[in-house]
Task: structure prediction
Amino acid sequence: MTPQSSPLPKVLAIDDSELIHRLLRVRLQHEQIELHGSMVAVRGLEMARELQPDVILLDIEMEGMDGFEVLQALKSDVDLQDIPVIFISATASMEDRVRALDLGAVDFVAKPFEVVELKARVRSALRVQHLVKMLAQKAQVDGLTGLWNRTYFDRRLSQEVSESIRHRRPLTLVMCDVDGFKKLNDERGHPFGDMVLERLAKILQSGRGSDIPCRYGGEEFGIILPNTSGSEALEVADRYRRAIEQETWPSAVGKVITASFGIADISVLPGTQGVDDLIAAADSALYKAKLNGRNRVEAANINQSTG
Amino acid sequence: MRLTPDDTTLRSEFADDPDMAGIVALFVRELPQRLAAMHAALSANDLEQVRVLAHQLKGAAGGYGYPKLGEAAALVDHAVKEGQQVNVIRSRVGMLAAVAARIRP
Result:
């Protein structure tokens, strides 16, 4: 899994009238969106969680839970609070509009809606949301290599550790460090060093779709391997190791560049492990790989190694 | 606003929009059932249900190209909201039904 990919934006309409859903389906059918709908507020909130839509169209007057309550529920949920909400209402009193905007709605469309206006407001909200998402992603992507950065790595690893503990699923962390990188930089200049990092990133991205390669810092990469045991990870890491070793360098013909790998499987660590323990274990395995001659894979607490 | 008796037909503003033909026809076909439900709620003295049905029509009718129907439904919605007497609400439902009777796709 690498940063990129954007399918059709999703729009979720929550309105208790079937008439409005039919109308929206027809009126928005030529837009480049995927439209979903719910006639019940509570179900609409569930769908918002499942779909993570890019825009929510929300009716104010609904039976049971009304639009204001739905909006409050959305805004108090960290996973949903950034989704822009456009209110749609037949009773557009000024007080209602102000209240909706104050609660965090981004826009307001009166029913019956003018089609052109409705489309324009949905597009406008989607544009803003696209930029917000892009910025949020940019803040998590490493500028040089295009891999996820350290910020993302820390957040994602702690998520994966919790998931792994909760669902008793395997999880392995691989730390990878370029051998003799400082010497490379000194001998051939920083542009060459940068190119090495970019190429290595490409190699790490070309692995299994479920692997999560990140730039940990400097010449060090952290690859999160969800649902992967230590012994599987040994093979995965060794494939990466060989691919790097076999890479040819046009501006340095005959040059062999290698990397060392340290892996830590959460299930073989003693006691209850947090993120820091996992990183520390992978790091000391990496250190062992360096000590044992570099260009090799070492695993924490398992008596296996390759290279 | 006053609705004067009028027996000319009301056609959808979107009658020529091929995208809309299907749902406009469905809207017109279902309209008698919506009115029947409103009358039933009125007979049962369930004014809240009258209001909900009128409110939905008010919000949607214009979208299907029948603004007059939406305005007539709004009068019913407001009458219930304002706590008007049942005979006022009944007469407004009657006016709404008269507009509805003129609706064609």
